[in-house]
Amino acid sequence: MGLSNRNLDNLPRYLIKFRQNDHPAAFEYLIADIISQVLFLPLHSKKTDNPSIRHRVLWGGEFDSKKKIITKSPAGADSVCYAFGFHILVECTLREGANQWRKEFVESLKHYETFVQQKTVKRDMLYLVVVAKRLHADTFVGYRQKATEGYKIVLLEPSNLSKICDYAKIAFTSCQLDFRMLINSLVENFCNSTSLDQYRKDTGKLIVNWGKAILIKEKSVFFGLKSLAAMNKIGKNTVGTSDILRNLRKDRTFELYLKILGNADLANLVKDGLVFEKFANLISTPDEYFFCRVESSDYRGRSNRLVKAVEQTNE
């Protein structure tokens, strides 16, 4: 279980758990953990890294939870994300002043070049994501110059990353290509922005629009799983749509999803989710839909057969 992205919304409450001198390392660790959740990749530290696992998030620091000792990444990027088909270097800082660019981030461009040379990575497959507690105008100007030279750079503040994580946790069957689409749109936005204020505003809109798009795309899975959970709570052999919806109204995530989705035919969304995803069988009646849930062992068997069939296409 990873750290909550709510820590990004209230950094002082999170950081107070660590010694003052350890705050930068604790911030690095939090960012790496949240990004690993967004990408659905395992998080490794310098001490626990396993290069045989190709796709992972590697945080350069170390954390001993028993001794409450945490150390920063000694050299190179704070974190590296080895995703499917692309890589992300992550740099982050709690500095907010005018020396944010000079003290913290000038080195990040050297890390970028070193990574390209050592890993023989193509530049169009490598992104630099910078997360600052509060971005400074000098940081915006400095990085934007490099962005116009072809560097794929994204600047984020904690609230941006928290919002991205919110969407990722709801749309948990989304793929990493979905996230890459967001990163590409943010890279383009950065290149076209003329001021930090404009960039902040447009970045927020892009994240919201991206979140809506991936949630709408996976609404069948979302409604199917939520409806199945409601059926399991109700505990009857057959359950009607009205009982399912009554139970779902108690779910905060479901209510959040409805706000994003807007007006919708909920009865048919429940039916489509349960039937299309094969979570339940439909027993139609004149007044409302009734469903009989599929046993988890049956679903697991079908899922395993599908995974095997997909793997065989690569043979």
Describe this structure in words.
The protein is an alpha/beta fold and 315 residues long. The protein folds into 2 domains: 6-217, Restriction Endonuclease (3-Layer(aba) Sandwich), CATH 3.40.91.50; 219-312, Arc Repressor Mutant, subunit A. Helix content is 55%, strand content 15%. The chain has a 6-stranded mixed β-sheet, sandwiched between helices. Helix 4 (100-119) runs parallel beside helix 5 (137-148) and helix 9 (219-234) crosses helix 10. The radius of gyration is 22 Å and the shape is elongated.
Count of β-strands? 11
Q: So what's the CATH class of the largest domain?
A: Alpha Beta
Distance between the termini: 34 Å
CATH architecture of the largest domain: 3-Layer(aba) Sandwich
What best-fitting shape do the alpha-carbon axes yield?
elongated
What is the residue-averaged pLDDT?
Answer: 90
DSSP helix fraction: 40-55%
How much of the sequence is in beta strands? Answer: 5-15%
Structural class: alpha/beta
Number of domains: 2
Number of helices: 13
Query: What kind of sheet is the major sheet?
Result: 6 strands, mixed
CATH fold assignment of the largest domain: Restriction Endonuclease
